[in-house]
Amino acid sequence: MSLPFLIFFACALLAVVGAVRLILAREPIHSALALILLMMSLAVLYLLLGAPFIAAVQILVYAGAIMVLFVFVIMVLNAGVEERTDFSKIAKYAGLPLAFFLLLWIAHWLAHAPAGSAIATGAGAPTVAFSTVELSEQLFRPYLFPFEATSILILIAILGALVLARKEE
Amino acid sequence: MEFISQHPVLVVSLVKIAALLFIVMTALAYITWLERKVIAHIQSRWGPYYVGAHGLLQPLADGLKFMFKEDVTPPVSDRIVYTLAPILALSLALTAIALIPFGPPSVQVLGQPVFIVSNVDIGLLFLFAITSIGVYGVALAGWSSNSKYPLMGGLRSSAQMISYEVSLTISVVGVLLLAGTLNFNGIIESQRGYWLHFIPRWHLIPQIVGFLCYLTAAVAETNRIPFDLPEAETELVAGFHTEYSSFKFAMFFMAEYANMVTVSCLAAILFLGGWLSPFPDSWKWQLYLPGAGLLALGAYCAWDTAVNMKRIARLQLGVVTVLAVGGGLLCILIPGAPEVIQGPFWFTSKILAILFFYIWMRGTLPRFRYDQLMSFGWKLLLPVSLANLVITALVIVWPLLVRHG
């Protein structure tokens, strides 16, 4: 077993543990910590896929900025322990079997992928790291319009947040 | 053995990590000594004096004391998070130092550069990623203590670190535009050369505004005076680490100093030419500066040994004298040593200069008020660093615009 393979499984496992803890934890801060664990494991997976820039941005933006704000808000509100209700009946009798079948279907699809297709051979996965220069050339040449449109979208979102948060006079 | 031959990078890295950890931990201990001494002299005191000559063994005594104190965990605290917080703070602060190049990559052993643990292509971005999660150490410590003052300290600290991180990152982008790379060695190489044959081409000169913004934001990021509101003792007892005792407290303490070292290293790399010498290569005498410095230190210690009254202090000073003189002679006489030692020597000198500046500020300035802190960060520092970025970008793009009409 190669080293990247081991790292992949360790991080995949950590990501799943983080996702499950995120839902099951009763303290909001524990949920937030589980989400941070999930995001860090995803960042390592991005690194394994040869995307160091995306990995660093994943940590910087999600784990470092957004989740810090989450934790900050939880601390400001001093949110207490969640109250636990019984599972809803729909979730119990329809949700769990459906989730099981979804996983089964994905496993079946992976196992029976036609030989030579991208998913069976691992083709398409980059073997060398994609440099930041190449990434920015893609971003600012062919994808310039969507990139700028996204920035305007974010600006609108900021303005919307300002309007919503303004005090009535 | 098979594993070692299959993964040479892994093994060499582990050795480098162990060496770096040892050096950094010792350096952290002696930075606390330096800080106490410098501040004491600013305030006309002597500082640590009795444990070892000139208090040189004080860090060791402090470390032992921290280890043997009772470790109290408040019964109402969240035990897991309470233990996790100092671990996060210290381990993240130390991880960041692995990205720092202490010398040129051309010095190699077994085909691996000696002076850097991990030469990441996107070094700067990765460093910011690691330091950005450093906030959790402080915030979680404040929350998990389940007590009023730590919570207030944790809240203040998170708000302050989020606010100043924006300015910190933006003040650095000007340097990135000039260097055109995120790799630390690349950024340092972009500062090679001289204006008028003797002024080094450091980014300090074109980016002086960025440098000042960076220094200010960096002090705020490391929670030091005049921005040490998270642990303002007159208002919050000790802020986020009020409930921490023994070695957990020591871990926060070390993390703070490790963060100081990291931001100083970053300032030296981005603005002061990293491991490059400030003098042109043709000035050959600079090769013997590190050795000469050590010999001067040895001479001072020898004089001090002669005049010191206490026998035990004379013994310790004698050992320091022998070490300094021996090290100085080795640095000068071993063929090739002066060249190898150049990079780390200049880099360490720059870091020490910035650290001294930090300590000097702590001995001089009073603390900000909370509203002053916020309005300073958002209304002055952020606009100035943004303007610096825009002007730098315009100056770089201007020739292209003119050429293409």
| Arithmetic mean of pLDDT of chain A | 82
Strand content of chain A: under 5%
Annotation field: number of helices of chain A: 7
Beta-strand proportion of chain B = under 5%
- Rounded to the nearest angstrom, the radius of gyration of chain A is 21 Å
Would you count the extended β strands of chain A for me?
A: 0
Terminal residue distance of chain B: 64 Å
The helicity of chain A comes to: over 70%
What form of chain A results from the Cα inertia axes?
Answer: extended
Mean pLDDT of chain B: 84
**Radius of gyration of CA atoms of chain B, rounded to a whole number:** 23 Å
Number of helices of chain B: 15
The largest beta-sheet of chain B arranges its strands as 1-2
Largest sheet of chain B: 2 strands, antiparallel
Question: What is the total tally of β strands of chain B?
Answer: 4
Oligomeric description of these chains? heterodimer
Task: Write up what this structure looks like.
Chain A has 169 residues and is mainly alpha-helical. In chain A, 75% of the residues lie in helices and 0% in strands. The radius of gyration of chain A is 21 Å and the shape is extended. The relative contact order of chain A is 0.07. In chain B, 42% of the residues are buried. Chain B is mostly helical and 405 residues long. In chain B, a hairpin with a 2-residue loop joins strand 1 (108-109) and strand 2. Chain B has a two-stranded antiparallel sheet with strand order 1-2. At the A-B interface, helix 2 and helix 3 of A face helix 5, helix 6 and helix 7 of B.
